[in-house]
């Protein structure tokens, strides 16, 4: 079993080296590391081209900043693993938990696995109250239209069978990719599982990028991909 780890990256010079090392130290032996740099301007590109060049299997450089969804689209297009997992470049999620994330797929019970920051007894950093409220609202709205009972639709950690990735066409460029993916795999009638994960959240001072505008756009994407798109 080969695992492709797709890492969308934008201005993560302070964490990208640690993330790559953490992925390489994960319990999975056969890993393909794919980094998509979304036109970083803080020195991340130089680090990828020099110190980290031999640590990464494939690197894609966007000539302009397009957003997380666009970065995932680029990464998914070149992934060759039997299973593909998304790993953010900011150390909020722990690669030591890959076995838990891909376990239901390996057991032939799932086609897609979502991580959940709100399940299980793993450590969860306490950060923003209103983010939690907003996440709950977006997850509930998404669940009402997909008729699946996720607890954390917006969680980055998602693992897919390669066959699902081949059928999935990502249209959103920014953070609207999360509700888009959820709506599309629900319509594909994929077998979806959810597992509790650790969460080492960042503050805005530490580099967190998602904002209230992304929450508003997520509502639009939930409605768009569930009600108006096939």
UniProtKB/TrEMBL annotation:
Q: Which CDD domains match?
A: DPM_DPG-synthase_like
Q: Which residues form the Glycosyltransferase 2-like domain?
A: 4-168
Q: Which Gene3D superfamilies match?
A: Spore Coat Polysaccharide Biosynthesis Protein SpsA, Chain A
InterPro entries, alphabetized: Glyco_trans_2-like (IPR001173), Glycosyltransferase_2 (IPR050256), Nucleotide-diphossugar_trans (IPR029044)
By what name is this protein known?
A: Glycosyltransferase family 2 protein
The organism of origin for this protein: Leptothoe spongobia TAU-MAC 1115
């Amino acid at each position: 079993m080969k695992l492709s780890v797709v890492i969308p990256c934008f201005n993560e010079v302070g964490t990208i080296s640690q993330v790559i090392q953490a992925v390489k130290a994960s319990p999975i032996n056969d890993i393909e590391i794919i980094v998509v740099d979304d036109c970083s301007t803080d020195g991340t590109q130089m680090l990828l081209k020099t110190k980290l060049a031999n640590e990464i299997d494939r690197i894609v450089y966007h000539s302009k900043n397009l957003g997380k969804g666009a970065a995932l689209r680029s990464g998914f297009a070149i992934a060759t693993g039997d299973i593909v997992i998304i790993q953010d470049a900011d150390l909020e999620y722990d690669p030591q938990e890959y076995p838990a994330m891909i376990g239901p797929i390996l057991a032939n019970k799932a086609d897609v696995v979502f991580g959940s920051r709100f399940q299980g007894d793993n450590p969860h950093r306490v950060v923003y109250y209103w983010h939690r409220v907003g996440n709950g609202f977006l997850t509930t709205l998404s669940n009402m239209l997909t008729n699946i009972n996720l607890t954390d639709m917006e969680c980055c950690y998602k693992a897919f069978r390669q066959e699902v990735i081949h059928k999935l066409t990502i249209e959103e460029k920014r953070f609207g990719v999360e509700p888009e993916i959820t709506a599309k795999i629900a319509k594909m009638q994929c077998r979806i599982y959810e597992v509790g994960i650790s969460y080492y959240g960042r503050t805005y001072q530490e580099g967190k990028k998602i904002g209230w505008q992304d929450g508003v756009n997520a509502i639009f994407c939930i409605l768009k991909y569930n009600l108006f798109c096939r």
